[in-house]
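Researcher: Sit down with what I've pasted below and flag anything odd:
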Amino acid sequence: MADLEQRYRALSRQFHPDYFYNAPPAERRASLEKSSYLNDAYRALKNPASRVEYLLQLEGLAAKDAQEASKQVPPALLEEVFALNEELDEVRELRAGGAADAEWKPRLERARAPIEAKRADHERQLQALSTAWDASVDRDAADDERRRIMESLRDRFLERNYITNLLAGIERELNS
């Protein structure tokens, strides 16, 4: 991240539109365009999740669309998803039956805890895999090693997206 920040600052000084205020219109436009691309790239690479998503796109391993990324239940999560959906159905029945908040909200909070822990674990795994990816690029590792790392990144990323959607569903239930 320090290297990213340093390179961003250097390029930003080089292309910033303020340095081209006396330049011909074509150069000012080019400066503005380059500065805009640089800012977009910096934002994408600075955020760990968007960086992984970008790498997956570069390597041709990204989900085809947002629906694919969020709907496919990762095999590693099937049991937990099944249990969570049962709990959500029971909570909905309680609410429909007029149960007090104190009866169903604690159940949702308890259901959320293991999913939150799973998300934290996935964040750690994504960070470790991102570090492994960077190291493999730095040492010019074999394509098959890099591909294995990238496939693991994709799997963890898809699981992370699914976990995020599960947590959003719990939040919707808690706030409705």
Remarks:
- Residues 70-175 form one domain.
